[in-house]
Amino acid sequence: MYRIRPWVVVAIAGLSLACTDTPTSVPDPVATSLAASPASITQGGSSTLTWNSTNASSCASDGWTSSTATNGSVVVSPAATTSYGLTCTGPGGSDAESVTVSVTAVAPSVSLTASSTSINAGDASTLTWSSTHATTCTSDGWTTSTATSGSEGVSPTATTTYGMTCTGPGGTATETVTVTVTAAAPSMTLSANPTSIAPGATSRLTWSSSNTTSCTSDGWTSSTATSGSEDVSPGATTTYGMTCTGPGGNDSDIATVTVTAAAPTVTLTASPASISSGGSSTLTWSSTNATSCTSDGWTSSTATGGSQSVSPGATTTYGMTCTGPGGNDTDNATVTVSTATYYPPPRTAGDWRRLVAINATPTAAEKANIQAVAGIDWDQLKVARDYSEALSSSTVLVIRNGWIAGEWGSTSANKVASVTKSFVGLAMAKLMDMSDAGQLAQSIGLQSLAHPYLAAAFGNSDPLKLQIRIEHLMTMSSGIEPEDPDFLTEQERLTQPMDAAPGAEWVYSSLPPNLLSMILQGLAGQNFGAFFNSRIGSVIGTDAIVWETIDGGYTRGAHGARVRPRDLARYAYLTLQDGVWDDGSGANQVISASRVGMLTTPAPVLAGVTFRASPGSPFPLPSDAPNHFGHLFWTNATQVALGSSVPTDAYYMHGCRDNLVVVVPSKNLIVVRAATSGPCTQTTFRSEFMQRVMASLTN
Question: Is the pTM of this model over 0.70?
């Protein structure tokens, strides 16, 4: 632009002059502006320089741009704070401007890591570092390198923190890393040699450990060394312990030393080892390594040594067991009762031997003798007698090993009801023995048909009767309609109707033993009562039995015999001795052993027969009666009749009012109960009574 100069008018006093000037052009001055945005940057950043000008024809920088334009912009990235200049020129001159871009250096950074931040003592870890914007790095001693990156292995002995500082234009940066050193876990072993010792012997305990600083026992050694040995001698099996401790914790171990107690021994002897019946022997025992000894019932002493007198009624083996820490030991001694079998003399010659008087309470010494000789606790036996007496007034007689061990009541003869039937059995066994010996005009046996020995009316009354055998009559399986009570005439007995085929059913009846009485009389030539008294009773020393008779002049075989309780025991004793009796002149086989066995064991012919109750009988029986009935004797084969406390080899004779004669061969025991009053029978009486008797046995 140009500016026009104005006219100048000069006024001089009194004089008026007029001057004129020709216009002259003057150029406008140049104006320049320069700005930076932003005016401050971080190293590596950029700023935009912008310029403008007026009245300029060109502009020139001081090197930061080659442009000569009078306005524009340029991006710059200075590494350091820099001032930028610009001069613009025009007709009116030139104008210069400058601007400064401040550069702030970047702070350095550093990274430091450990390949394993947790190691066991003695292991190594690798430290690795890297940095940015740094010119040098310096550790706190773990490496001499000043490089801005690198790695170095370290093996600290304890937990350590490592540092690295890196420096650059922007300052310094520091990083740390910690390597934790875990102390090794301690371990230890404790052993015993030997592990098992006898009392008083020693065992050596040995221990060793690693990574430990001390070891402590549970009392068996005062040493705290980390390894060692110690001898011990425990009195009983002992477990020893030790704990060892180190920087890494602790460890424990145990060792057991077993003390094997010496095995006990016991010796039991009998002196003398063989005695006569009624004699005594001294049992002596001694032991080693035992704390107590227990007999099998012949002494109450628990001492580890001692002696005891015994008087067994039969050969007996005695036992003693001694116990100690090392276990137990048992020894036995047998006392042999070597005399011949005892047989009681007749009543007139002293009768049965006894350990206690009838109806008497024995002294303490007598009770001890009863237990020693008969193996019976008299007080307990009296419990059985009292139970019997509670049912009805009765005589109770108990004989064991041939000795009367208890007797209450009367010695007089009493009616024994259906025990009489068993006497018929004994007589028939004797009759068949005589037949076998050819002593009868007509032979007879169990399988013999019955009708040839009876009047013709018997067989003619029913064809089924022609099939009845002697065994059917002796086992209550004849099939004839039962006769109870037995008031039939002779003709009625022979013609009594049949209810079933022979051998098909079992029914208790008085008729079969009465028919057998008639058969015996026909074969023996004398009535059953006389035959029994002469062939059996007088031979074994009994008083003559008083019998009843029935129509026709026959001895009643079903019931009615009047017998002394002690004589009942003699008949039982005869069966206990397998039919043998010795009256002092030598052994006599009164009844064969095989036929005693036939009488007193379950009859095979009854297997599978049907039970039928006898409608007129006052003698109620269980439905399993055929399973434990022999040949006119009862047995305990099923352990129902006499109970489970009585052995299965027991057999018995039984009658109304619970007249009872029990034989237990395995216990050498005879039990007699005689009564004339009371109920005909109580279902549970026999088993309850015998349970109490058996409870009195001490061996």
Answer: no
